[in-house]
Amino acid sequence: MKGLRKSPWLLLAVFIMVLLFRLYTRHLDPDPRIRSQAGSQYWARLKVAAPRGFIRDRNGIALAISTPALSFFIDPTLWDPGNAPLLQDLIPRERLERISTKMEGRYFPIARKVDPPVSERIINLKLPGLFWVKETKRIYPQGNTLCHVLGFCSIDDTGLAGTELFWDRVLFAPPEGRIIAKDAKGHFVDVALPGHTLTADNDSLVQLTIDSRLQHILEQRLKEGMDSHKAEWAAAILVEPSTGMILGMASLPDFNPNVRTTFADKESLRNNALSRVFEPGSTFKPIIMSNLLDNGEVSLDSTINCQGKIRVADVTIHDIKAHGKVNPISIIADSCNVGMVNGVKHSEPFRTYSFLKRCGFGDPSGIELPGEESGLIMPPSQWRGSVPATIAIGQGIGVTPLQLAMATASIANGGTLMKPFIVSEIRRKGGKLEYQGKPFAVGEVMSARTSQLMREAMRQAVEKGTGRTAAVPGVKVAGKTGTAQVPGAGGYLKGDYTPSFVGFWPCDDPKYLLLVVIGNPREGDFLGGKVAAPVFRSIVQDMELIS
Q: Do 411 and 446 touch, CB atoms closer than 8 A?
């Protein structure tokens, strides 16, 4: 009887234990559907951009930084569509139209990475259901300056062009997680994970070899030259010939990486210094003449009589005038086509082709930037008829401005082709050295004696030849003009030219080499000595003032 009297209490105790266990498990481990519903009511997990590393010039001047910005969103359950007109001109139109109607859900983004003046106006409206979260925004303090080298990023701070793309693995920081929770008053707040700092510092660094002072000069003078001749494009490269270090690189037309609407013109995004392939014209002559001298195909004693034109195979190659008796030095100084054609008439195509490849033509240089073109050089098996003659005067071959600058630098530095580099050093987060740019000699492409002769010839070109408009009082400049026709379908395009000038100074021990190329001038002259050489001169003069 006692056992029967105890059993109801035992059953009741078991029932209570089971009930308590079920209540416990339901609270600590609820049904996934309940968990999802509760979560959508009280919190949301967001991904927001974290700061990218810095890009600086050789003097430590900031070229690309990440700054705080606000991103805005609404909670449709708390939002009144009637308030949407108050955000007119403050958020994108398509977002404005969307929030003007009834919406589902608890989270809808309306504006990413808003600048402070606009974000303050949005916040001051104090609209119910409108909230914001802190992010970072990529800023380029110099605006258009060096835009093609720096590149730009996506809205989520992923590198899309230039240095930002090439070194994205170092500069990029993974997006940070945010938990947006509702407090007791119904307001949304950021909730950081324990021990986690929001928008953590990112001290990774890409330091360029660019000197911002010289870069500003390059861009200003290049733009003046391009505008005065209503040209379609332009490029300039300033390099230290002894090391291959790039001190300045300019390309026009340009864009502002801070203003995405300027990305619409695809030609503005092209870095002409790396990706524009053009026929160099007479700036190519010192390179070919160097090969002829080294091979013994011409000598300083070699002379010919230039009568202003010469017939080669099925074409006649003209000069601006009859130069009379010329030798290798005066051929370069006076830019004599007939002299160049006569010099290569016994050249062996395979040997010339090999020389040009050693000079870097037909292959990317390997500079630390994306988008570099290889140029165009026909295999020697196709060098028939007039092809060797046209290549000798810089036609029938496609080069990039960077290739031409580096090949000419081998004349300036004593005969060594240097690999160009535009990055001084790369440091990962925490300061660990990832990469360091250093001079690298690709190989000897001409003898020291020949490079000395070509330096003298190019000095004479500036003193009394075609490059006199590049002369700078008090500065020993050596250089070469170029004026090339522009090839098109079925032949050369009428009225299209590419004037250029490449020079270095001081010619006895060159510290700088500068190439200026102006594409398709539509107003005024079209000759390299009248279009590109004056731009070269103005840049050198400005550089001398700050040196």
A: yes
3-class DSSP state for residue 184? coil
For 173, residues 6+ apart whose C-beta sits below 8 A from its C-beta are 50, 51, 52, 53, 157, 200, 202, 204, 429
pTM score, two decimals?
0.86
User: Is residue 247 exposed (0-12), middle (13-18) or buried (19+ Cβ within 10 Å)?
Assistant: buried
Q: Cβ distance 418 to 390 under 8 Å?
A: no
The tens digit of pLDDT for each residue in 426-466 reads: 999 888 999 999 999 999 999 999 999 999 999 999 999 99
Q: Is residue 513 within 8 Å of 408, Cβ to Cβ?
A: yes
Q: What does the DSSP 8-state code read for residue 308?
A: S
Contact 204, 54 (CB under 8 A): yes
Q: In this structure, are residues 128 and 78 in contact, taking their beta carbons and an 8 Å threshold? A: yes
Residues 6 or more apart in contact with residue 429 via CB below 8 angstroms: 53, 173, 202, 203, 204
| First vs last C-alpha separation in the chain | 113
The C-alpha angle with vertex 545 and arms to 143 and 240, in degrees rounded to 5, equals 70
Residue entry with tokens 């793309």: 165
- CB contact set of 361 (below 8 Å; sequence gap of 6+): 375, 377, 397, 399, 403, 407
Which tokens belong to 427?
Answer: 């440091």
| Distance of alpha carbon 281 from alpha carbon 450, whole angstroms | 21
Q: Which two tokens stand for residue 411?
A: 């004349």
Q: Is the pLDDT reported for residue 40 higher than 50? A: no
Q: How far apart are CA 427 and CA 492, in angstroms?
A: 48
Whether residue 95 contacts residue 111, with contact meaning beta carbons closer than 8 Å, is answered with yes
Q: How confident is the model at residue 198 (pLDDT cuts 50, 70, 90)?
A: very low
- 417: which residues sit within 8 A by CB, 6+ positions away? 358, 359, 360, 406, 407, 409, 410, 441, 442, 443, 444, 445
pLDDT at res. 174: 78
Mean pLDDT, residues 116-121: 90
Residue 188, pLDDT above cutoff 80: no
